[in-house]
Amino acid sequence: MEYRINRRTGDRISALGFGTSYIAQSKEKEAVAALRHAFEGGVNYFDLATAEARTFSCFCKALADVRNEVFYQIHFGADYSAGTYGWTTDAEEIKRSIDWQLKTLQTDYIDYGFIHCLDEPDDWQEYRQNGALAFLMQLKEQGVVRHLGLSSHTPATIQRVLDEAPIDMLMFSVNPAYDYQKGEYAKGSSEERAAIPSG
């Protein structure tokens, strides 16, 4: 496995990460085995923006004994209270969701806490005004969140957040279809998308 150093955090991260969108559609035994196999193959970065709540218990069973050897990317705004993925910018819902995720993963810290899927300027405004950002910053001060991240599809919103918050990592889609402004998440022109800072 090839590893790269995050220039802002110093973390040594595998070039291949593990996305978990639909892993919960597998039987639990298979999902746990897949996660463990990825770890044993050198993957050490796991994203937990997933389709179903039961993904989190699979992680606990697969990786709890090697928690200090892996990085978890957890999304503030991804809500699993209904058992499947939901999205919110409500501060109280975010607090409940993060508490549940930490307990289910049996961990007391988050490596990368991401402001999740923030596409519209109004969403960022609400995130700042309702206490969601303050909560994330408080967790960072407490060491519960070690680094801050942002996921978005919208260049203008990304630039505004980067200007106003101490973001360590950006999750941004690179997709030719989006560059031609096709599809629901094709936000911004190809020039705006190409201009997103790379480091």
Describe the protein's architecture and organization.
The chain has helices at residues 28-40, 55-63, 91-105, 121-129, 132-142, 155-164, 176-179, 190-194; strands at residues 3-5, 12-14, 18-19, 45-47, 71-76, 78-79, 86-87, 110-115, 145-152, 169-172. The chain is an alpha/beta fold and 199 residues long. The chain has a single domain, classed as Alpha-Beta Barrel (TIM Barrel), CATH 3.20.20. β4, α2 (55-63) and β5 form a beta-alpha-beta unit. 35% of the residues are buried. The mean pLDDT is 90.
Brief overview, please?
By secondary structure, the chain is α/β, with parallel strands linked by helices. It is 38% helix and 20% strand. It is globular.
SSE topology:
Elements: E1 3-5, E2 12-14, E3 18-19, H1 28-40, E4 45-47, H2 55-63, E5 71-76, E6 78-79, E7 86-87, H3 91-105, E8 110-115, H4 121-129, H5 132-142, E9 145-152, H6 155-164, E10 169-172, H7 176-179, H8 190-194
Parallel strand pairs: 3-4, 4-5, 5-8, 8-9, 9-10
Antiparallel strand pairs: 1-2, 6-7
Helix pairs in contact: 1-2
Notable features of this structure?
single chain; 199 residues; six-stranded parallel beta sheet; two-stranded antiparallel sheet; 8 helices; globular
